């Protein structure tokens, strides 16, 4: 959830029963995504569950809930919005009996108090005042007065760039549940046990195969005797071409087991270390948060 408000704190008149409270939970989403299409009862349960996780109430205390889906609640800027907005303003200046207010009326991401102020000034304009509603919470780029020529220039620039800009914002993907944990996970990658086992097993197999072949080609009776002692540990192994294949099988099996064990122990120790780092980072992040309160 993005915001919690208690309507009883706005005015007792907004709650019919003074013994109870009415809270509003705001969720930010894209029209048509998972939150937008979630059934009303599931959304109410989600809100109650998250409020309990925040320690603000117990989910069992929630008696009822209602869902309001507000489409296009926020203006979204793209790279050419300034020129497009200037073109619209230039044309609307020719309508003396029209007053635009609020976020969607003016396509400005104002705060709520600024949006309400534009409505109050517009009402006074209707009664004869001459307020410049567009100057409320003006962005830096609107500090100068936009003339008709400037508006036309910006509109031409916007048209030239229009092909490169998305018409509607789209989600980039599912949000990361815990960015801190994801960053730590990428920084300390885990070893794949089967991959390391296969690698060491292959090395062990090639070593046994090469050692036996070298003795068969170049070695004498002494080397053959020493290498043949492996038959006491590797059942079926002999210094022969058949024994070389048997030895390669044993080398792969023991190498795989060793690699799997190394990766397991490394991942286990790394997991403990990462958990310790994450705990310290969370404590530091919480400390920084309270420093700014």
Summed up, the domain count is: 3
Poorly predicted runs: 140-145
| Rg value | 35 Å
In spatial order, strands of the major sheet run 1-2
Features:
293 residues, mainly alpha, 3 domains, two-stranded antiparallel ribbon, 2 strands, 3% strand, elongated
Describe it.
This protein is mainly α and 293 residues long. It folds into 3 domains: 3-61, no CATH class; 81-164, no CATH class; 186-291, no CATH class. Helix content is 55%, strand content 3%. It has 11 helices and 2 strands, in the order βαβαααααααααα. The chain has helices at residues 7-10, 34-37, 40-53, 81-92, 102-106, 112-126, 148-161, 179-187, 193-217, 221-228, 241-291; strands spanning 3-6, 23-26. It has a two-stranded antiparallel ribbon. The longest helix has 51 residues, at 241-291. It starts with a strand and ends with a helix. Mean pLDDT is 81; it is low at 140-145.
